[in-house]
Amino acid sequence: MAPTNTYSSKSTTAGDAAVGGLFHGLVAGLAMAAYIVLVGLLQGIGPVMIWTRLGGALENPVSGLLAHLAVSGVYGVIWGLIWWPIHRRLPQLPAWLGGLVYGLLLLVIAQAAVAALNPLLMDIGLAHRAVAHLVYGLVLGLLTARSQASQN
Q1: How far is CA 103 from CA 37, 42, 46, 60, 61, in A?
Q2: What is the pLDDT of residue 11?
Q3: pLDDT by residue (tens digit) across 28-59?
Q4: CB 81 within 8 A of CB 19
Q5: Secondary structure (H, E, C), the chain
Q6: What is the rounded distance in angstroms from the CA atom of residue 67 to the CA atom of residue 53?
Q7: How many Å apart are CA 117 and CA 56, to the nearest integer?
């Protein structure tokens, strides 16, 4: 019996990582939006108002949701480009853990930038904003891990 090679012949490029990050970011953004809507409902704020707040100056719920998803996709691309070399150097590091750290990093950025640009989002408590960003990062990491596993 001939020895088998367990090494995958499929190689990923930075472009593959960016495209994967884009799609994973969109799905993670939907999960984050679902959490934010759930929290809003528990606080007596409807989804239309939440999505309007996400849009800031756009003042349109559809525009707000689409803006959120666009930002989620861009952050997903950035994640893909950051995670790709990290995973190549440290393949034992779980992507879900990296995603959680990335979600916390995005929370810090959001606290600094979004608070000034869109103060309406600050009505959602810090704890809920933190959980929402952790949901984003966790989903992003889990989807990335799933993609990596399917490439092997």
Answers
A1: 18, 23, 25, 26, 24
A2: 55
A3: 999 999 999 999 899 898 899 888 877 776 77
A4: no
A5: CCCCCCCCCCCCCHHHHHHHHHHHHHHHHHHHHHHHHHHHHHCCCCHHHHHHHHHHHHCCHHHHHHHHHHHHHHHHHHHHHHHHHHHHHCCCCCHHHHHHHHHHHHHHHHHHHHHHHCHHHHHCCHHHHHHHHHHHHHHHHHHHHHHHHHHC
A6: 11
A7: 8
Q: What angle do CA 13, 77, 57 make, to 5 degrees?
A: 165
Question: Would you call 53 exposed, middle or buried from its count of C-beta atoms within 10 A (0-12, 13-18, 19+)?
Answer: buried
For residues 114 and 116, give the distance between their C-alpha atoms in angstroms, rounded to a whole number. 5
Model pTM?
Answer: 0.88
